[in-house]
Amino acid sequence: MTAPSALGVDAGSTTCKVVAVGPAGEMVASRLEPARPGIEEQAAELVAAVCAGLGLGGPAPVVATGYGRRLVRGAGRRVTEITCHARGVFRALGHGGTLVDIGGQDAKAIRIGEQGRPVDFAMNDKCAAGTGRFLEHTAARLGVAVTELGGRALEAKGEERITSTCTVFAESEIISLLARGADLDAIIRGLHRSLVGRIVAMARAVGIVSPLILSGGVALNAGVRAMMSEATGLPVVLPPHPQLMGAYGAALLAAEG
Ligand code: ADP
User: Fold this and answer.
1) pLDDT of res. 168
2) Greatest CA separation found in the chain?
3) Nearest atom in ligand 1 to 12's CA
4) Is the pTM of this model over 0.90?
């Protein structure tokens, strides 16, 4: 069994993630769970589970990131998600670019410089409409699993225009569209267009340097990836395990001491 040299904990608003890295900075284990109200206990349980899975008895250095990072017990350091995602992605891909991290409750555009350090960033944590919450909320209203949304957006024959700039009003708009007999997939495609429009505007604020890289849970949505590429005219690159990049970057920083 490879002994991990360090651990990263990303206590996000929507999911809690733990990654262990080995001596060469390779990811050797990970856990991800939907976030529970008891952040402190959940993070400790996931760290214990990762260590037990690796047969690790002794303590390893821990860096915590994410919205709940202050509540992670035993963390030697607490580092912003911006720094951690940039570091994780740079290491996973071996290059920089403009990184867009779309999580459950916020989204960030980060220009990655040398050694994976962020040189500029923009963030939206004020409005749900530019985050994963927008798709989660509207998916629930449409009775479609969030994991199916991207495929359905891509397969849609048409596209309904969603004009509301707010998640709550977008839901009202969906109800009106459904009442008019609009096609479900066309509505889903319109919702993706709306989210992507907001995200691209944020990315342009930091300056988009090719390639465009996606991380965070929403990066798993193929519709978002395709429409981001269409909107910018740039290739979209995905690191392996995009949702774990914050925890991975945190573990790399913990290994550096
Ligand atoms: P945070 O770090 O803010 O807790 P994450 O980066 O874990 O958030 O992202 C959570 C978001 O990712 C949720 O809004 C969820 O809907 C979305 N998501 C997670 N898995 C998938 C998937 N397989 N397909 C599409 N979206 C996904």
Assistant:
1) 87
2) 62
3) 4
4) yes
Give the Cβ contact number of residue 229 at 10 Å.
17
Nearest to 83 by CA among 74, 69, 72, 73: 69
- The alpha carbon of 144 and the centre of ligand 1 are apart by a number of angstroms equal to 15
Q: Does residue 215 line the site of ligand 1, with CB under 6 A?
A: no
Q: Check: CB of residue 111 under 8 Å from CB of residue 209.
A: yes
Please say whether the beta carbons of 53 and 37 come within 8 A. no
Q: Specify the pLDDT at position 166.
A: 86
The pLDDT score that the predictor gives to residue 1 is: 46
* Cα 62 from chain centroid (whole Å): 21
Contact 232 CB / ligand 1 (< 6 Å)? no
pLDDT of 163 higher than 60: yes
242 lines ligand 1 (CB under 6 A): no
Q: Best substitution site from 65, 99, 228, 243 to test ligand 1's pocket, by max atoms within 8 Å of Cβ?
A: 243
Quickly tell me which residue has 């479900």 as its tokens: 184
Asked if 191 and 164 count as a contact pair (C-beta separation under 8 A), the reply is no
For ligand 1, say whether the CB of 14 is within 6 Å of any of its atoms. Answer: yes
Token pair recorded at residue 13: 């608003």
